[in-house]
Amino acid sequence: MILAENVCYTYRNGNNVLKNISFEIKKGEFIAIIGSNGSGKTTLLKHFNGLLKPTGGKMLVNGMDTRKTKTSRLAKYVGFLFQNPDHQIFCSTVYDEIAFGLKNISTRREDIRQRVKKAAEKLGLESLLDSNPLTLSKGQRQRVAFASILALETDIIVLDEPTKGQDYIESIKIMDTVRELNEQGKTIIMVTHDMELAALYAKRIIVLRNGTIHLDGRTESVMASPEILASSGLKPPQIYMLSYMFRKYGLFWNVHTVEDMFRQLLAHLEGSKNVSIG
Amino acid sequence: MSAFVEYIPGNSIFHRLNPITKILWTFSVMIVCFLTENPLAVLSVFIVNLVIAATGNIIRQMYPILRGLLVFCTILSLCQVFFIKEGTVVLYALPWFRLGPVTDRGIRLCVLISLRMLSTASTVPILLMTTPMSDIITAMTEKLRLPYKYSLMLTIALKFIPSFIDEMNQVMQAQMSRGYNSDTKNPFRKFLIIIPLAIPLLITSIQKSRLLAISMEVRGFGSGKRSCYKDCSMGNADYIAIIIMASFVLAGIAAALIT
Ligand SMILES: Nc1ncnc2c1ncn2[C@@H]1O[C@H](COP(=O)(O)OP(=O)(O)O)[C@@H](O)[C@H]1O
Ligand SMILES: [Mg+2]
Question: Which of A60, A259, B27, B241 has its Cα between 20 and 30 A from that of A38?
Answer without folding.
Answer: A60
